[in-house]
């Protein structure tokens, strides 16, 4: 994973300008960078999901699903949010879900 969204300003830009979509396994927010920069990805697991071990497992599943789908994509910033069902899913299931959602937000 080369590029990661880290700063508050970048998160806010994706939230304010980005398109969103989601299902039971993952939620996605994505925005085009528009300046030819390499794409970046962020992985989010909210504290309401559970303890640190639970949240880290969710993020590991999201990271592997993103890798399977070829993220990050040049010219696109993407934030992936885990859900309650992400933890018990395998990365292949999440990757299939992610593929559909990315087509929706990129259209």
Textual characterization of the structure:
This protein is α+β, with helices and mostly antiparallel strands. The protein has a single domain (8-106), classed as Ribosomal Protein S5, domain 2 (2-Layer Sandwich). The relative contact order is 0.26. The radius of gyration is 13 Å and the shape is globular. It has three helices and four strands, in the order αβββαβα. The longest helix has 17 residues, at 52-68. Helix 2 packs across helix 3. Helix content is 40%, strand content 21%. A four-stranded mixed beta sheet has the order 1-2-4-3, with helices on both faces. Its EC number is 3.1.26.5. Keywords: Endonuclease, Hydrolase, Nuclease, RNA-binding, tRNA processing.
Short overview:
Its EC number is 3.1.26.5. The protein has 107 residues and is an alpha+beta fold.
Return Rg in Å: 13 Å
Largest sheet: 4 strands, mixed
Mean pLDDT: 92
The domain tally reads 1
- Straight-line N-to-C gap: 24 Å
CATH-level-2 architecture:
2-Layer Sandwich
CATH class: Alpha Beta
List the secondary-structure elements in sequence, H or E. Answer: HEEEHEH
Q: Helix coverage percent of residues?
A: 40-55%
Strand-residue proportion: 15-25%
The CATH topology assignment is: Ribosomal Protein S5, domain 2
Structural class: alpha+beta
Inertia-based shape: globular
Q: How many helix segments?
A: 3
- What order do the strands of the largest sheet run in, or round the barrel if closed? 1-2-4-3
DSSP strand tally? 4
Task: Enumerate the spans where pLDDT stays under 50 for 5 or more consecutive residues.
Answer: none
